[in-house]
Design goal:
Elements: H1 2-9, E1 18-19, H2 30-40, E2 44-50, E3 53-61, H3 62-71, H4 81-84, E4 86-87, H5 98-108, E5 112-116, E6 122-127, H6 128-140
Antiparallel strand pairs: 1-6, 2-3, 3-4, 5-6
């Protein structure tokens, strides 16, 4: 069992990440982004510079939107993703291990980690759910 746990902890991000995840842009209306999250049943999206540049600049979550709605009026059609997103989110690389990711997620209390390349371009997304699915596979072996 100990060997399998060690093997599990050394799994690379690239084997569990969501490739080409959905994302949004800083100048996208918050209403359109929220609708996309609701329709796709996801709770957050990475934010990239623009359609031609996938450089990661932030992350927006339904929690960010709910908190902002509580604190201020989001009824304005002019509210944009950049008004509510978290700048410079924590990121991982495709060769990082599950041990590293799990420690970061628990330590920083986050549920999703964008995966970026050496140019800080979005290439994937790691979610707690994918980690749990992989753990279940290992437990069934």
């Amino acid at each position: 069992m100990e060997d399998r746990l060690k093997e599990f902890s050394e799994i690379k991000v690239s084997s569990i990440m969501i490739n080409d995840p959905l994302f949004t842009y800083p100048n996208e209306k918050i209403s359109a982004t929220e609708l996309l999250m609701i329709r796709k049943n996801i709770s957050g999206l990475p934010v990239v510079k623009d359609r031609n540049n996938k450089q990661l600049i932030g992350i927006i979550t339904q929690r960010d939107i709910r908190l902002a709605r509580f604190a201020m009026s989001l009824d304005s059609p002019n509210t944009l993703v950049k008004d509510l997103m978290t700048l410079d989110p924590f990121v991982v690389r495709k060769n990082d291990t599950l041990m590293y990711i799990i420690e970061m997620m628990f330590g920083k209390k986050i549920q999703r980690l964008p995966v970026v390349n050496e140019n800080n371009e979005l290439i994937g997304l790691v979610m707690q759910n994918e980690i749990m699915q992989k753990l279940l596979e290992y437990m069934k072996k």
